[in-house]
Amino acid sequence: MAETGGVTQSRTRAVRPSSAAQPIAEVDANTAQALGTGVDELDRVLGGGIVPGAVVLLSGEPGVGKSTLLLDVAARFARTGRKVLYVSGEESAGQIRLRAQRIGALADLLYLSAETDLGTVLGMIEAEQPELLIVDSVQTLASADVEGVPGGVTQVREVAAGIIRAAKSKGVATLLVGHVTKDGQVAGPRLLEHLVDVVCSFEGEKHSRLRTLRAVKNRFGPTDEFGCFDMTENGIIGLADPSGLFLSATEDPSPGTFLGVTQEGRRPMVVEVQALLTPPASGPPRRAVSGVENARTAMILAVLNKHVGLDILGKDVFAATLGGAKAVEPAFDLALCLALVSGLSGKPPRRRTVAIGEISLSGEIRTVPGIESRLSEAFRQGVTHAIVPRGAMEGTRKPRGMAVREAQRLQDAINSGVLSDTAPSVSLDSNHA
């Protein structure tokens, strides 16, 4: 930089452009049409498929199934007559071949390479001219022209820039696997997430078969879509209708359970939450939750104590959703609340009843977005009764055959008959034992 009269002057000179600028109406939009991957749940999250030249970063914890998912995608894409290049810096070609055979992912146009040198990978892209490139993972590749170890900030930046440049110039749809740190962030420089077109997070508990996929960033589609997968011994299967995974198989509900509807993106899912309350064995009361937020659970316990008069703060409280579902949005508050009341009172909930609503600190039930779609999904799953916030049904159509009751405060919901009298109950008055 040079300064003239207090004004900073740039040293970069203008050069003749390699291609002239075009009027926007003359740009060929067909080059940006998404190609279906053959995996419907992945296409849903990506916004219809993967765009030629787009670079998608798929992040997730080790062992969650990223490689298995992408190997299945590679085989399905190759069976449509398009060449796929799968580059792995973590496994040998023989290891990948064995997994592909196990999950039924063999295809004639699927090419494998176990390579860690960026220059060699770029040469393969030039030679093979694939329509889909999969790199597993971006942290295992390294460039000989840049100092640093594979996975370091400098190397990840150079590898990502080289692959993105090749993908854009040749119109190759690209899927990059990215490792995550202990706090769930993509390992490497933050610049990596800015350079790519799409960032997807693949999540799941190791003890559960359920896997979820969501878009954190998407230049070609929405970021509010949500995909579900079932991890089996024979690979990963997309779940177009995952609600049944999160419900109990018994027809008659037990005390301490309730149904709620959580919405992931634009997809509502009926989820059962269970609550167990016991006297503390020793020391201070315990709080253990799974699938629901610990902070919201603690808040709901305080609201039940203050505004409903339940002596609940001195109990050991355990709360969990079924099937590994995550129900962390405020709309699930009322279902969790009624499950806690049901568990404390010993009264089972009324059959086929769902609760939707956010609980405020004053004990008021507040309305939430998507009431109509939530009720429709609940009705599709066999729910016939629902309790929602007062005013939530204004301008909202309820499913024909579903009885919907509105409640303004938490006490109103408890007194509305959503808990049956088929079991001995404990008084809900204040200071009960």
From TrEMBL:
<dbReference type="GO" id="GO:0000725">
    <property type="term" value="P:recombinational repair"/>
</dbReference>
<keyword id="KW-0346">Stress response</keyword>
<dbReference type="InterPro" id="IPR014721">
    <property type="entry name" value="Ribsml_uS5_D2-typ_fold_subgr"/>
</dbReference>
<comment type="function">
    <text>Plays a role in repairing double-strand DNA breaks, probably involving stabilizing or processing branched DNA or blocked replication forks.</text>
</comment>
<protein>
    <recommendedName>
        <fullName>DNA repair protein RadA</fullName>
    </recommendedName>
</protein>
<feature type="short sequence motif" description="RadA KNRFG motif">
    <location>
        <begin position="217"/>
        <end position="221"/>
    </location>
</feature>
<dbReference type="InterPro" id="IPR003593">
    <property type="entry name" value="AAA+_ATPase"/>
</dbReference>
<keyword id="KW-0479">Metal-binding</keyword>
<feature type="compositionally biased region" description="Polar residues">
    <location>
        <begin position="1"/>
        <end position="12"/>
    </location>
</feature>
<dbReference type="Pfam" id="PF13481">
    <property type="entry name" value="AAA_25"/>
</dbReference>
<dbReference type="GO" id="GO:0005829">
    <property type="term" value="C:cytosol"/>
</dbReference>
<dbReference type="GO" id="GO:0140664">
    <property type="term" value="F:ATP-dependent DNA damage sensor activity"/>
</dbReference>
<dbReference type="InterPro" id="IPR027417">
    <property type="entry name" value="P-loop_NTPase"/>
</dbReference>
<dbReference type="InterPro" id="IPR004504">
    <property type="entry name" value="DNA_repair_RadA"/>
</dbReference>
<dbReference type="GO" id="GO:0008270">
    <property type="term" value="F:zinc ion binding"/>
</dbReference>
<dbReference type="InterPro" id="IPR020588">
    <property type="entry name" value="RecA_ATP-bd"/>
</dbReference>
<dbReference type="Pfam" id="PF13541">
    <property type="entry name" value="ChlI"/>
</dbReference>
<keyword id="KW-0863">Zinc-finger</keyword>
<feature type="region of interest" description="Lon-protease-like">
    <location>
        <begin position="316"/>
        <end position="433"/>
    </location>
</feature>
<keyword id="KW-0238">DNA-binding</keyword>
<keyword id="KW-0227">DNA damage</keyword>
<feature type="domain" description="RecA family profile 1">
    <location>
        <begin position="31"/>
        <end position="180"/>
    </location>
</feature>
<keyword id="KW-0862">Zinc</keyword>
<feature type="region of interest" description="Disordered">
    <location>
        <begin position="1"/>
        <end position="22"/>
    </location>
</feature>
<dbReference type="InterPro" id="IPR020568">
    <property type="entry name" value="Ribosomal_Su5_D2-typ_SF"/>
</dbReference>
<dbReference type="GO" id="GO:0003684">
    <property type="term" value="F:damaged DNA binding"/>
</dbReference>
<keyword id="KW-0547">Nucleotide-binding</keyword>
<dbReference type="GO" id="GO:0016787">
    <property type="term" value="F:hydrolase activity"/>
</dbReference>
<comment type="similarity">
    <text>Belongs to the RecA family. RadA subfamily.</text>
</comment>
<comment type="function">
    <text>DNA-dependent ATPase involved in processing of recombination intermediates, plays a role in repairing DNA breaks. Stimulates the branch migration of RecA-mediated strand transfer reactions, allowing the 3' invading strand to extend heteroduplex DNA faster. Binds ssDNA in the presence of ADP but not other nucleotides, has ATPase activity that is stimulated by ssDNA and various branched DNA structures, but inhibited by SSB. Does not have RecA's homology-searching function.</text>
</comment>
<keyword id="KW-0378">Hydrolase</keyword>
<feature type="binding site">
    <location>
        <begin position="60"/>
        <end position="67"/>
    </location>
    <ligand>
        <name>ATP</name>
    </ligand>
</feature>
<dbReference type="GO" id="GO:0005524">
    <property type="term" value="F:ATP binding"/>
</dbReference>
<keyword id="KW-0067">ATP-binding</keyword>
<keyword id="KW-0234">DNA repair</keyword>
